[in-house]
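A brief tutorial aside. Many learners find it easier to grasp structure tokens once they have seen a single protein encoded end to end. The record that follows does exactly this for TolC family protein. Read the sequence first, then the structure, and try to relate runs of similar tokens to stretches of the chain.
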Amino acid sequence: MKRYILIGILWLGFLTQLPAQHILSLTQADCRELALQRNEELQKATNALQQAELDQKIAFSSYLPKLDGMVSGSYMFPNVEMTGMELQIHGMYLAGISVTQPLYAGGKIRAGNKLAQIGRESAAESRRKTRMEVIAEADKAYWNYIAVQQKVRMLEAYRTQMDTLYQQVETAVKAGMGTDNELLRITAKRSEINYQLQKAQNGNELCRLALCHVLGEPLETLILPTDTLIQVTPPEQLDEGIDSRPEFKLLKQQVAAQEQQIKMARGNILPQIGLSAGYAYYGNIKLKGMTADPQGNYIPFTQKMDDGIGLVMASVSIPLFHWGEGLRKVKKAKLDLQNAQLDLQQNSRLLTIEVRQAIQNLTNGYNLVQTAALGSKEAQESLRVMRNRYTHGLSTLTDLLEAQSQWQQAESNRIEALTQYKIYETEYKRCTGHLEE
């Protein structure tokens, strides 16, 4: 007795040293939230949006005057001879400030600000597109994991049925009321079920790993989905529009950006007008020479120069002849605009086709759910009737095994139809740009 107590204590100590597996219970909403928080691509899209906002502020600063400061020092040798005098620059300094205000830049400043605004809007749409892709990926992994889990539980129930049937037939064989052939058939069926169950369990593990990857969780995490009772509602008022889809908005913004690029190219051949003002102070410049006093004697003198100067300047730059460079850049920008318009036209059709395909999948998926639910109900009833008939000797083992196989297939179809419909539902919302609503 003491030996058993000692072994129990040792086992308990061993189990307490094992690392505890992290268990995570998730709803579909929790799954989405975790995926959005930890997805690297979404974090990069958020950074790109912040960069675009900074670019817009940088572009706006082109409207404002620029204030610059300058400080310099110099040492020149040898000294410079100037009509009998000597200019000495040993440590001359110069300090000043300047203000520059562009008055007209050929429309490039305004076009640059428009481009920055379009860039910020495009970054926001790209981020929204990434968010919907992350949600769609999380939903797909979540429902696939639920589907495989339910199939595992269904096969385990199927195996329990076959184990019960095996015991009944084994008892009948021992009593001389059954045959070894029947027992062998059930044994073969049990082996087939074990094979299917092992495949389902392997698939369950792969789906768990895929879901952990989407959620950014450690691969050892045990995930327990809570949405095991799948509710399906018939699709109503399905929208075929693509106006809310971020891909469509990005295509339109690409066209708008190319229009501003034309203005930027045209601004290079227009006059540039600017105004600047400044003030500088210089010092430590010495002028040495000889000068005559009132008695006519030459004496050496040194004059130190320290002073400040102000400056106001207006400038006008007019491109006159650059061998047609500017006009060719404008033509090139117009061709880029045509290409962007063609991309919008072509991809709009593709996006519309994708939406219609999503609508068809959703509609067909709901019909499959109804058909699979009815088939599962009928197979369940058929199995119940056939089991009763077999118990009373009114049907053969073949009929019972066939009814059980039909129930297993019908239940598998029901699980696949329900989970696939939820995936189609998410995909439809993504294709129409309403996934986050």
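Self-check: The CA atoms of residues 77 and 194 lie 98 Å apart. If you spotted this yourself, you are ready for the next section.
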